[in-house]
């Protein structure tokens, strides 16, 4: 039983290697943990530790390497490795990104943006379907943060995601920090973005921090997952819960990793916002 | 998929080769030049792949300092970008790259230190394997002994160097209080690197044991591996070496060379 009740059970944190021993020793009151799939695809101590932690917490597998938007097709060998890990871990969910990172056989280690066209929609939908068949379960697909857009794009990103979910039956992982970063970088309204997503398709929410940088005198927000969730994104979280209803919510932190207590503090805050949104009565129940 | 392929190969060229020209035509400005937008992505790709290499090769980084390491890593990742998304598998060719990288010539031992760090990284993430019991040999016909091959625990690397790379590695650990002087002429190293439990263990082997194990790990039959060991030391004790091999859990499967006896010296 998780102290804090149903709301706390919905909130998870990203599991990073430096925190693993402390989490096993202290069993902090979070509902679930998310790991980066690609860190656990070898043998040895890393997957062994994950199997130990799995006995204590539900695990979400969050992939960065499927490259669902690669024109050259899915890397089937990689997909098979992820499917094998999913078999061993029995995750609560498997998620990936609306992006590409492989071209000409080179892995570019970035969630690169796609032109949003009918061509890329058809391609990503085919890859999502292929992956879902391999996993035997729906995939959650996350909206990326972006710093550039393509001249050829004809479909707004939330519409692209909504149509992807409609065609493939995938769910959406709504990363609110990414929504905020991308919209601010292109002078758009993050609230209006949320309004275009189909609530029933949203299966998970991500919260993270970003940084402010200057490029040629223009402020660019960078999704670096290296600080606390900003007040703007907390406000967007309230709005998202109002529109989508309560959803599993993850606190994500990757660079300048702080003490575990800081992540737990952010998780508590998310639980408080969730509880308030329920008490407010505006929230819908979890979509079936 | 012509246009999407074109966009992606243009961006690949911009992110790894530094040539923005083909990509910029596809990108909207929106108040910031396309090249400045590409630069945001290029910075991330370079910084994170360099960080991945630094995590795998911390002693190489310490030996050449952060700035030179970043320079070398940047050159390397353009020539040999990762071929897959598991970054713990990235860097297999870094040692060979350093060996041929002209600015590294004053440090002739550097590539072998990188080979040692790569062997440790490979050991850490190698597939789990179940050691074979020596009892498995009972099934074998005695006349097949000469051509017997042993599949070795996949975490094992046998590494030799004309430099004392194990000592160089040890004195460059972060918890080592004082920078020590390593005599490069003190003799080379014959090392076995493998994972035992959750730990990576680096062990110096004597010359015949090293020759024996390296030959077996390379797929040689027992007769050929024994010949290698005897060439290194005529007093080589096969029975002892063989028992130790099984006691340490190195063999994981038995096999035979294609033509029995063909491996005879």
Q: What descriptors fit this protein?
A:
heterodimer, A: alpha/beta, 8-stranded parallel barrel, two-stranded antiparallel sheet, 10 helices, 41% helix, disordered C terminus, B: 265 residues, mainly alpha, 3-stranded antiparallel beta sheet, 11 helices, 48% helix, 11% strand
Structure overview:
The complex is a heterodimer of chains A (288) and B (265). Chain A is built from ten helices and twelve strands. Chain A has 288 residues and is an alpha/beta fold. Chain A has one domain: Alpha-Beta Barrel (TIM Barrel), CATH 3.20.20.150. In chain A, strands 1-2-3-4-7-8-9-12 form an eight-stranded parallel barrel, surrounded by four helices. Chain B has 265 residues and is mainly α. Chain B folds into two domains: 107 residues, no CATH class; 139 residues, no CATH class. Chain B has eleven helices and five strands; from the N terminus they run αααααααββαββαααβ. In chain B, the strands form two sheets. In chain B, strands 2-3-4 form a three-stranded antiparallel sheet, with helices on both faces. Chain B has a two-stranded antiparallel sheet with strand order 1-5. In chain B, α1 crosses α3, α3 crosses α5 and α9 packs antiparallel against α10. The radius of gyration of chain B is 24 Å and the shape is elongated. The C terminus of chain B is likely disordered.
């Amino acid at each position: 039983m998780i102290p804090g009740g149903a709301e706390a059970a919905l909130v998870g944190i990203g599991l990073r290697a430096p925190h693993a021993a402390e989490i096993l020793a202290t069993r902090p009151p979070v509902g679930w943990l998310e790991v980066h799939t690609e860190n656990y695809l070898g043998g040895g101590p890393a997957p062994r530790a994950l199997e130990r932690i799995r006995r204590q917490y539900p695990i979400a597998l969050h992939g960065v390497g499927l490259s669902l938007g690669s024109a050259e097709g899915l890397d089937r060998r990689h997909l098979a490795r992820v499917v094998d890990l999913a078999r061993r871990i029995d995750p609560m969910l498997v998620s990936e990104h609306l992006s590409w990172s492989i071209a000409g056989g080179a892995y570019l280690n970035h969630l690169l943006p796609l032109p949003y066209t009918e061509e890329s929609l058809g391609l990503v939908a085919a890859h999502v379907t292929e992956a879902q068949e391999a996993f035997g379960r729906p995939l959650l697909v996350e909206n990326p943060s972006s710093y550039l857009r393509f001249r050829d794009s004809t479909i707004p990103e939330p519409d692209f995601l909504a149509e992807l979910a409609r065609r493939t039956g995938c769910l959406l992982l709504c990363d609110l920090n990414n929504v905020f970063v991308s919209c601010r970088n292109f002078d758009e309204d993050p609230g209006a973005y949320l309004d275009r997503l189909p609530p029933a398709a949203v299966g998970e929410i991500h919260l993270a921090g970003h940084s402010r940088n200057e490029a040629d005198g223009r402020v660019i927000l960078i999704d670096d997952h290296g600080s606390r969730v900003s007040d703007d994104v907390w406000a967007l979280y309230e709005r998202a819960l109002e529109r989508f209803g309560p959803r599993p919510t993850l606190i994500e932190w990757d660079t300048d990793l702080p003490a575990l207590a800081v992540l737990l503090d952010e998780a508590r805050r998310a639980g408080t916002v969730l509880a308030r949104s329920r008490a407010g009565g505006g929230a819908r129940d979890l979509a079936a | 998929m012509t246009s999407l392929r074109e966009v992606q190969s243009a961006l690949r060229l911009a992110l790894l080769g530094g040539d923005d020209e083909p990509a910029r035509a596809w990108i909207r400005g929106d108040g910031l030049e396309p090249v400045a937008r590409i630069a945001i992505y290029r910075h991330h790709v370079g910084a994170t792949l360099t960080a991945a290499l630094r995590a795998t090769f911390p002693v190489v980084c310490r030996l050449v300092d952060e700035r030179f390491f970043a320079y070398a890593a940047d050159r390397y990742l353009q020539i040999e970008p990762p071929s897959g998304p598991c970054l713990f598998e990235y860097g297999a060719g870094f040692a060979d790259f350093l060996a041929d990288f002209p600015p590294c010539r004053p440090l002739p031992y550097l590539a072998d230190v990188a080979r040692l760090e790569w062997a440790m990284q490979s050991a850490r993430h190698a597939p789990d394997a179940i050691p074979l019991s020596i009892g498995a040999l009972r099934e074998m016909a005695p006349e097949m002994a000469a051509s017997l091959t042993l599949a070795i625990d996949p975490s094992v690397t046998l590494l030799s160097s004309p430099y004392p790379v194990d000592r160089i590695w040890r004195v460059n650990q972060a918890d080592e209080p004082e920078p020590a002087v390593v005599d490069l002429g003190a003799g080379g190293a014959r090392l076995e690197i493998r994972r035992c439990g959750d730990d990576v263990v680096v062990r110096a082997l004597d010359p015949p044991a090293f020759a024996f194990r390296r030959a077996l790990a390379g797929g040689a039959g027992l007769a050929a591996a024994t010949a290698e060991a005897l060439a290194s030391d005529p007093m080589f004790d096969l029975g002892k070496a063989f028992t130790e091999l099984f006691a340490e859990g190195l063999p994981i499967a038995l096999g035979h060379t294609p033509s029995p006896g063909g491996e005879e010296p």
